[in-house]
């Protein structure tokens, strides 16, 4: 994503000195409350826009259980975790089971936390189903003295049949209340389908988040400085899907990191032919043909910055950047960025030969 979409009014007096005014607060290192680290985004903000679904889920839970269904990335895991956290705060005992593809190949793999380690190796995942079942019943009954244990089962469509059967059995006996999540288009195992067929759980649909909730999340993650038009543009792009927003922010973060490298280089007023990109030695001479401005732009482009990012960084119009790039291409005898990348390699990559 072009980082112009993140541009807004920067807070005064923050960040490293730079030679040119930067119009993106990200470049000033403004702290934001979401966390983007090592390519992963933690959108660590309060849950937003799910009040109605949580109310519906909690009344379904009181009646037995709830299965949250919805498209990928809509926030099923987050909502299920929220429901469990609220149950804990209300004094209920909870357990979280995460079903995964890897676990699905191990019979009873997902219900390890429900098994009784005192029953010996035969009661471990892969062991005798009857021993496992009686251990799970005994242990769960001990934990569910006052009220059923609230069990979150994330991605229940990935549960192995044995685990789903045990969960169903525990629910029928009134030992657990289930909060399961199932992704649209996936088939849940019979034990989970039986939960809602037998009336032990109700399905609650999670639809894409509305604009107000997306605004809340964006404001929390990016801070209040993002321009309203850009916030709307991002909300439109991610279409109410918070996971898509997280992925968009990873892309934006990578762009910003590259542009920051360019900003740091420019701030040192360096005249050498390095910068955010490295020049293959045999091509250094060709680059000396370029004007200083052309060289700056070529190095930033080779570092991965889009024309829009470069324009923002150097306070130029996109058209001017493209004109400089066009002239540089002609001098270098290349026809575009792909060929430019052969001549100029990003700093953290080996020079291509
Ligand atoms: N209502 C919400 N308010 C704030 N943040 C949210 C909300 N819903 C989801 N998120 C955040 O969005 C991201 C994706 O949500 P989550 O993992 O719950 O989606 P999912 O539907 O379980 O995705 P998947 O299909 O990959 O399992 C997470 O970082 C989560 O914390
Ligand atoms: Mg999930």
From TrEMBL:
Keyword field: DNA-binding, Transcription, Transcription regulation
Ranges where the HTH luxR-type domain occurs: 283-348
InterPro entries for the chain: P-loop_NTPase, Sig_transdc_resp-reg_C-effctor, Tscrpt_reg_LuxR_C, WH-like_DNA-bd_sf
Keyword Signal among UniProt keywords: no
Biased composition (Low complexity): 1-19
GO BP terms in the entry: regulation of DNA-templated transcription
Coiled coil: none
Annotated stretches, region: Disordered: 1-38
Pfam families noted in UniProt: GerE
Compositional bias annotation for Basic and acidic residues: 22-35
Molecular function GO terms recorded: DNA binding
PROSITE patterns per record: HTH_LUXR_1, HTH_LUXR_2
Protein name per UniProt: Helix-turn-helix transcriptional regulator
Organism: Actinomadura decatromicini
């Amino acid at each position: 994503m072009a980082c112009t979409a993140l541009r807004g009014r920067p807070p005064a007096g923050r960040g490293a000195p730079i030679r040119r005014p930067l119009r993106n607060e990200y470049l000033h290192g403004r702290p934001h409350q979401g966390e983007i680290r090592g390519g992963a985004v933690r959108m660590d903000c309060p849950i937003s826009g799910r009040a109605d679904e949580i109310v519906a889920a909690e009344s379904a839970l009181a009646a037995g259980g709830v299965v949250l269904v919805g498209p990928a990335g809509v926030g099923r895991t987050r909502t299920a975790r929220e429901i469990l956290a609220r149950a804990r705060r209300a004094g209920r005992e909870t357990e979280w089971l995460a079903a995964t593809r890897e676990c699905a190949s191990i019979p009873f793999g997902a219900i390890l936390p429900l098994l009784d380690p005192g029953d010996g190796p035969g009661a471990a995942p892969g062991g005798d189903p009857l021993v496992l079942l009686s251990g799970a019943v005994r242990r769960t009954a001990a934990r569910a003295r006052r009220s059923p244990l609230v069990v979150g089962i994330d991605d229940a469509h990935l549960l192995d049949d044995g685990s789903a059967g045990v969960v169903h059995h525990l629910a029928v006996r009134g030992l657990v209340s289930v909060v399961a999540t199932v992704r649209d288009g996936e088939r849940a195992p019979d034990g989970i389908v039986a939960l809602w067929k037998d009336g032990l759980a109700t399905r609650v649909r999670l639809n894409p988040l509305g604009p107000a909730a997306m605004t809340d999340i964006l404001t929390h993650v990016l801070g209040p400085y993002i321009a309203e038009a850009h916030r709307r543009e991002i909300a439109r792009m991610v279409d109410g899907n918070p996971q898509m927003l997280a992925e968009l922010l990873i892309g934006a973060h990578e762009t910003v990191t590259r542009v920051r490298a360019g900003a740091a280089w420019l701030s040192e007023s360096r005249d050498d032919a390095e910068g955010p990109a490295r020049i293959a030695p045999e091509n250094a001479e060709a680059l000396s043909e370029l004007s200083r401005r052309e060289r700056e732009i070529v190095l930033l482009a080779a570092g991965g910055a889009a024309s829009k990012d470069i324009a923002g960084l150097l306070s130029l119009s996109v058209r001017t950047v493209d004109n400089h790039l066009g002239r540089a291409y002609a001098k270098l005898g290349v026809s575009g960025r792909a060929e430019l990348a052969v001549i100029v390699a990003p700093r953290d990559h080996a020079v291509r030969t």
